[in-house]
Structures are given as structure tokens and as C-alpha cells.
Structure of Methyltransferase domain-containing protein:
Amino acid sequence: MALLAQIQEIFLSLINPWQFMYLAASWFPGTVIRLVRDRKFGVLLSPSQLKDIWFSNFWDWFAPRLRLNAGVRVIPLLEGRTTGGLVVEEPAGPGIGGTILELGAGNGNWVDIFSDKYLEQSRAGGAATADGSSGVEVVDTTLATHRGGGGAGSEKKENKKNAREPVTRVYGVEPNRDLHANLRRKAKEAGLEGVYEIVPVGIEDLDNPAKWGGKVEKGSVDCIVSILCLCSIPEPRDNIRELYGYLKKGGRWYVYEHVRRDEGWGMRAYQSFVNLFWPHFLGGCQLCRPTEQWLREAGPWEKIDVGHPLEEEWHHTLPHILGVFTK
Ligand SMILES: C[S@@+](CC[C@H](N)C(=O)[O-])C[C@H]1O[C@@H](n2cnc3c(N)ncnc32)[C@H](O)[C@@H]1O
């Protein structure tokens, strides 16, 4: 019986990426129908614009579900409560604070955590609420898989100490303009008007004022936050090195990313096979990136505290890294 249950778990784990691609694909017809209805034929004829709007429709639906699953890792990470890839009760280091660069901010899934309201609420011992905390069913998806203690959706019940510091400025880098309306709305709802600035370009154009009319100085950033974004950026190795330059000495890079599977040739081959299809459904997201290695090589770090969440077993097609790099 135990063997049967294990076989079933492995099978479900292996088909999980296909289910996720199916979910993303199911948003395509509705996107096309809406564009035809709105007579936006130009968008229909532009593959990149069509891809952006399709992804944005899907992500607007999926992001609260991701939050319910991945929030049990991401929120402790930003509060300084992770070590060795594990979530811990007491802060293991500082949480986010100061000037923040949020990479691939999407539709603002994590924006409320940057707000003073969130800080006051959690300092007072209150529950930190998620946008998706009411009326959203948990979808167990490969991007967000959490099968450890606490369980998906346990964010609401969390009432732990955190080492979050006041946030003074956030640059939310998000090139997909179709996601901006919700990102802007959530920043406003979080009370971050005047603090949260949307940078409407990819991270590769961050230092190009001609592209977005602003500038972030190298060496001026206290924290970089990358949640499931480095899988989507172009020239990742070079751009990660470039981003390292934006951190102050002592600055921290908080990372929750899915990465290449390094052990077991069978799963590596399977991950490479899934990756033949995956980027076409998920806005160009790549499964087989050695992101931890590229982060380590980006420049000298004073401290690296990163690891793989324990509950991700050998059959997970999207293993994650969770942790903090300190410059
Ligand atoms: C998987 S989504 C994650 C969004 C958000 N971090 C979240 O957790 O909900 C990846 C995001 O990276 C963004 N992205 C793609 N290319 C990018 C680039 N070159 N620079 C910055 N962000 C990028 C995508 O538009 C998308 O919003």
C-alpha cells in the first residue's frame, strides 16, 4: 500500500508540469476571443504582444494561488526567517528593508509585504494577510509546490517574529505592461504610493534611462528580491552579474527561484524534455538554469545562506533554491 502511494505520488509529480502547461494553455482561447471582440487585431498579429497579454491573463488568475502555496516560503524569506533553504521560527538574519529592487514584480503578488502596514501588523503580532487569502482554492502546481509542514494556505495562521526593516523605496521591474494595472493597484492598496515605482523594462535595460526615463544608481540598493523571475530574464549569467553591481556593500539578494536539477540523469533528462515545451506556455520561463551557480559567481559575497527546501524530493521537475546572498 505504501509502495502504491509512493508510485502515485511520483506519477502525480511527473505529470504536474503538463497539468500546469494545460492550465496556462486554457487561457489562450479566451485571450484571443477578447482581443477579437475588442478589435485589437494588431495585438493578435504580434506574437510578442499576444504572448504578454496571454501570460498576464493567466498570471492574474494564478498569482493568488501561487501566493497561497509559495507564501509559506517567500514570506519567511523576506522576513529573514530562512536558513539552509528551510523556514525557521526565529530570524536567522535581517529581513528586507531600505531601497529594494524587485525583479519581475508581475502583478504585485508580493507587494504588500513591502508596506509599513504589513510591518506594523506583523510587529503587533497580527496575521499578515494575503491578497488571495479569501475565496481562492489551493491549486497544487509545480511552480509553487509546498508539501511540508504548515501546508499550502497556512500563511494566514503565521504569527512569527520577523526581522523586516522599514522600506524606503521599491523599484518594481516588470517589462510586461499588461501586468502593470494590477501591480499599480496593489501598490496603492498597500499604501506604497510614492514609494513603489514601476520600472517598465526588463532588468537588462535598468541602466538605460532612454528606455524608461529613470535611473537606479549602481551600489545604491539595499535588497534585491527575486521571486520566480531569473528563469525568465535574457542572458541570465551576464545580467545576474550586472545586478550584483546595484547592491551596496552589505546589501542582500533574497532569492526564491526554480532551478536546473543537478543530480540524477533521469530527472535531468526529463526536465530538459519538459523544457522543450514549457517556455512556450509560460512566457519564456526556462527550467534548466543553474541560477545558484550564476549567483555565486556574480561577485564576492560575504555570506551565502541558500538551500533546497527539504520537501522537494528527487521527482520534482522544478526544484527551488531559497535563501539570501549578502554582499
Ligand atoms: C513567473 S512570473 C513571477 C512574477 C512574480 N514575481 C510573482 O511571483 O508573482 C515572472 C515575471 O518575470 C517577468 N520578466 C520577464 N522577463 C523579464 C526581464 N527581462 N526582466 C524583469 N522581469 C522579467 C515576467 O513578465 C513575469 O512577470
About this structure: The chain has a mean pLDDT of 90. Residues 63, 66, 103-104, 106, 109, 173-176, 179, 202-204, 227-229, 232-234, 283, 285 surround S-adenosylmethionine (CB under 6 Å). Strands lie at 82-83, 86-87, 98-103, 167-173, 196-199, 221-227, 247-258, 303-307, 320-326. The chain has one domain: 2-326.
